[in-house]
Design brief:
This protein is an alpha/beta fold. It is built from five helices and six strands, in the order βααβββββααα. It is about 45% helix and about 25% strand.
Length: about 150
C-alpha cells in the first residue's frame, strides 16, 4: 500500500490552525467526515478513544492518530501541517507539527497495520520531514508525500 492510496490532494491541509491536541483531532475529524461521509462525531470519538490508550505522537514532531471506523469502506488518510507546533503527549515530549490521520475500515485486519507502518516509515525520514516543514502549499505537500514513496519503491 502506497501513500497515494491513502491520501488525495483534497486531503492535505497546509496550515491547520489548532492550539491543542483535542482541537487538532476535532479539525481532522471534520475534514475526514467531509471526505468519507462518516459522522464527524463518530470519527472524533474513535480518535479520542485511541489516544486514551496512549499518545499517537511518535516523536520528532510527528503524530499519527488512527482508528478503525465502522461503515468505512476504504482507507482514508489526511495529512496536516500545523501553523504552530502543539503539545501532543508524544513519546519524546516534543510538540507536534506534522500529523497524518489514518482511518481504516473496521475489519481491515493486518492491512491497517501495514498502512500504519508505511506512514510511519515515511515520516521517520528526517529529510522528508524537513521538506514537508519547508512548504505551506498543499500541492507541494501532496507531491512530497507521494513522490517520496514512489522513489522508495524504485
Amino acid at each position: 500500500m502506497e501513500i497515494a492510496d491513502l491520501i488525495s490532494p483534497r486531503s492535505v491541509i497546509a496550515q491547520l490552525r489548532a492550539t491543542n491536541k483535542r482541537q487538532a483531532l476535532q479539525e481532522l475529524a471534520k475534514r475526514a467526515a467531509a471526505i468519507t461521509g462518516v459522522a464527524e462525531r463518530t470519527i472524533f470519538d474513535i480518535l479520542i478513544e485511541r489516544e486514551r490508550l496512549g499518545s499517537t505522537g511518535i516523536g520528532m514532531g510527528i503524530g499519527i492518530p488512527h482508528g478503525r471506523v465502522p461503515g468505512l469502506d476504504r482507507f482514508c488518510g489526511i495529512f496536516a501541517r500545523l501553523e504552530r507546533p502543539i503539545a501532543f503527549e508524544a513519546i519524546d515530549e516534543q510538540p507536534v507539527d506534522l500529523i497524518f490521520l489514518l482511518l481504516a475500515p473496521e475489519h481491515a485486519g493486518a492491512d491497517h497495520l501495514k498502512a500504519l507502518a508505511r506512514v510511519s516509515r515515511l515520516l521517520r525520514d528526517r529529510t522528508v520531514c524537513e521538506k514537508l516543514r519547508g512548504t505551506d502549499r498543499p500541492d507541494a505537500l501532496y507531491a512530497l508525500l507521494t513522490d517520496m514513496t514512489e522513489s522508495d519503491a524504485a
